[in-house]
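Annotated sample (chain length 153).
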Amino acid sequence: MAKYCLAKITFVALFVVGLLQFTIFSRPSTFVDTRTALIWQRCSAGMRDNMGDCAGVAGLYDWQQALGYCAQLKGQGWHLPDRNELISLVDWQKRTPAVPDALRANTKNNVYWTATSSEEEPNKAYYVSMFSGFSYPNKKIIQGFVRCVQSLP
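Output written by the structure step:
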């Protein structure tokens, strides 16, 4: 009986922690990952926040454009996430897209660029597939989606 109760309590605690991972802000269109202390754009680049929903069409960017898009955002420290930062959004229990429920509606089921270049092939950088959660290097001229990030102050 004691083992059953402990397992049940552990499950409930993990479930609650999962629900509390993200704090959604309506302005300025961001959410905070409380595990990593990172502030993320709510909508993919090219879309706009429309009262909590993302409206418009997400843009496709090559790697250089993705870096530039994040760098030009208003506010301090916005950048294209590195590989580890973007993988931190992946929920390995989910697919299509492989992100927590709180982010599913505003995440394209495709590849998102990271700022991490391939050491072996300088003309490639890593992306993260939000379909599967896996990360692979791809040519920097290929187009992908973008979600910018900054650290909590």
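Annotation: The chain has one domain: 2-151.
Annotation: Residues 2-151 form a domain with the Mannose-Binding Protein A; Chain A fold (CATH 3.10.100.10).
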